[in-house]
Amino acid sequence: MKKCGIIDIGSNSIRLGLYAYDAQKFEIIDNYVTVKELGSYVDKGTISQKGIEVALKTLISFKDIAKNRGVDDLYALVTAFGRKLDDPSILINQLNNEVPTTLISGEQEATLAFKGCRSKVNLEKGIMIDIGGGSVEMVQFNNNDIEYQTSIDLGCVSLFNINPQEPQLYVDDLLKKIDHRFNGSLVGAGGTIESLFIIYDKMGDPRTKLTRDEVLNIIENYTNDAIHFIISKYIDARKKTLWYGLQILYAIMEYYDINELYLSDYGVKEGYLIENIMR
Questions:
Q1: Could you tell me if 75 and 4 are in contact, meaning their C-beta atoms sit under 8 angstroms apart?
Q2: pLDDT in tens, the chain (279 residues)
Q3: 3-state SS of 154-167?
Q4: R_g over Cα of the chain
Q5: Residue 166, number of CB atoms within 10 A of its CB
Q6: What 8-state DSSP symbol labels residue 107?
Q7: How many other CB atoms are found less than 10 A from the CB of residue 159?
Q8: Residue 148 β-bridge partners
Q9: What is the distance, to the nearest Å, from the Cα of residue 216 to the centroid of all Cα atoms in its chain?
Q10: Distance between CA atoms of residues 189 and 214, nearest Å
Q11: Disulfide: which of 16, 131, 207, 276 matches 192 by Cβ 3.0-4.6 Å?
Q12: Is residue 132 within 8 Å of residue 80, measured between CB atoms?
């Protein structure tokens, strides 16, 4: 089997996935994630030189990890925070010096997240959601067909920066602008949803799916000592923005009357592997 690595450069975190693959299937060699909050280095459409340096240093670090694991073929994807830049080429050109880098559109990100999720979770129809630091991708699907897809220009980092008095109402106002009524069970990817399932797992109540009330339970008890301990010990890097990501998730579930949430370990990186490398 061939080997490759895919780096997802997001507003909140930068993730590296290492894979072995052939034309029909792939296996995960390892996953790495670091929270760098690159979105915080963007001001009025411009990323600071410090932000570019943080991204470059992370790419070099991941490049070394991949090489030590016997992986030489690397690809990098820039998502929501890159789309907010007036001139993304300033960032992309510098990253290209280390790893071939592509800026993907909101539509592409939604499609890739869906392809990744569908390769892991087998639901006939429903909704795929990927909550990132700077955007939320949503796909209505029926079997392997995409019926509708959209990218919402809001994520856990951007909501944290806005810090509205009533975050769920703020999200509702954005959802009202979407010309589609999503329906069905929800398959979720991304750090917010992964963290939610980790909390239940570490509370001694591991789940393969969660209800809307169980999502609300974590929000309402977020400052509870037991939950605070779990977040600090296992997902400390996300503690600043996780509450805002959960607000986005619950607002979407409430707005569309969604009651079931499933976790997919696969998302944009795996979708890119399936669509752009394996094929």
A1: yes
A2: 999 999 999 988 999 999 999 999 999 999 999 989 898 899 899 999 999 999 999 999 999 999 999 998 999 999 988 998 999 999 999 999 999 999 999 999 999 999 998 888 878 899 999 998 889 999 999 988 999 999 999 999 899 999 999 999 999 999 999 999 999 999 998 889 999 999 999 999 999 899 999 999 999 999 999 999 999 999 988 888 999 999 999 999 999 999 999 999 899 999 999 999 998
A3: CCHHHHHHHCCCCH
A4: 18
A5: 9
A6: H
A7: 24
A8: 140
A9: 20
A10: 17
A11: 131
A12: yes
Q: How far is CA 164 from the centre of its chain?
A: 22
Distance between CA atoms of residues 224 and 278, nearest Å: 45
Measuring CA to CA, which residue among 104, 131, 101, 103 is closest to residue 117? Answer: 131
Q: Could you give the angle at the alpha carbon of 8 between the alpha carbons of 94 and 196, nearest 5°?
A: 145
Dihedral angle sign, alpha carbons of residues 4, 8, 14, 15? negative
Q: Are strands 186-189 and 260-263 parallel, antiparallel or unpaired?
A: parallel
CA distance 101 to 78: 7
Give the separation between CA 18 and CA 20, rounded to whole angstroms. Answer: 7
Q: Which amino acid is at 220?
A: E
Residue type, 186: L
Cα 209 from Cα 175, distance rounded (Å): 24
| Residue in the structure block whose two tokens are 């780096």 | 7
Provide the residue count of the chain.
Answer: 279
Nearest to 69 by CA among 26, 111, 28: 28
